[in-house]
Amino acid sequence: VSCSLCSETMEPEILAVHKGENCPRRIVTCEYCEFPLPAIDLFEHQEVCGNRTELCHLCRRYIRLRERIDHESRCNGVPNITAESSRNTREAERERAARRRPRHEFSPKRLLFTIAITGIAVLLGSLFFQRKPGNSEMH
C-alpha cells in the first residue's frame, strides 16, 4: 500500500506505525511554540524557534527557549554577572554613565537667585545706558 502523506509504499500491517511514528510528512508540534508542522521541517524550525528569547522573571535575563528548562532548574533569582546578556550590559553601562553626569536640576532657591540676579542686571543696565532726550541728535 501507499502512504497517503508521503506516497511511500509498504506492507499494510506497518502503515499505521509508519503514519504515526516514521512518516516524514506526519504532523508534529514544535516543543517551543507548539506550532503544528510536518516532521521533515521540524528540525529546521526548532533551530530558529529555540533561539528566540524570553525574559526570566527571577533573574531578569533573556534566556534562549532551548535553554529555558535547564536555566529554570538552576536559576536562583540573582543576575549572573559573568553571563549577563549584552542588552543588560548596555543598560547597566547607561545607568553608570548617568550617575557620573551632573544633573541639571534646579532647586527653587537657585532658581529664585538666578531670577533676582537677572532682574538686578536689567535694572542696572537700564539706569546706566539710559538715553538722554537731547543727546540723540548731534550736529
UniProtKB/TrEMBL annotation:
InterPro entries: Innate_Immune_Apopt_Reg, Znf_RING/FYVE/PHD. One of its GO terms (cellular component) is mitochondrion. The keyword Cytoplasm does not apply. Residues 87-96 have a biased composition (Basic and acidic residues). The keyword Signal does not apply. Keywords: Membrane, Transmembrane, Transmembrane helix. It comes from the Eukaryota. Residues 80-103 are annotated as: Disordered. The chain crosses the membrane at residues 111-129. This is TRAF-type domain-containing protein. It comes from Escallonia rubra. The lineage of its organism: Eukaryota, Viridiplantae, Streptophyta, Embryophyta, Tracheophyta.
